[in-house]
Amino acid sequence: MKTDTLNxxxxxxxxxxxxxxxxxxxxxxxxxIDILVTDYCDKNGxxxxxxxxxxxxxxxxxxxxxxxxxxxRRKGTNDT
Length: 80
Description:
Elements lengths: L11 H13 L4 H15 L10 H25 L2
Helix pairs in contact: 1-2
C-alpha cells in the first residue's frame, strides 16, 4: 500500500495517550492513527475510497465536503 505523509500538531496529553495505546497494541503511532481513523469510519458509516477508486475520487469527495461545510458555516452566521 502506498502511503502519504501527514504532519500535525496535537496536545501533549493526546500524544501521550496515542503512544500508550500504540504501545499496548504493539503498533507504531502512525499505524495506530490509521487504525483509529479506519475504525471510526467503519463505526460511523463513512465510506473510505479504495485504492482502485484512486486518489482523484478521494480528493473530489474531500473538496465536496469542504464546500458543504463552508455553506453550513455561512448559513449559521447569517441566522443571528
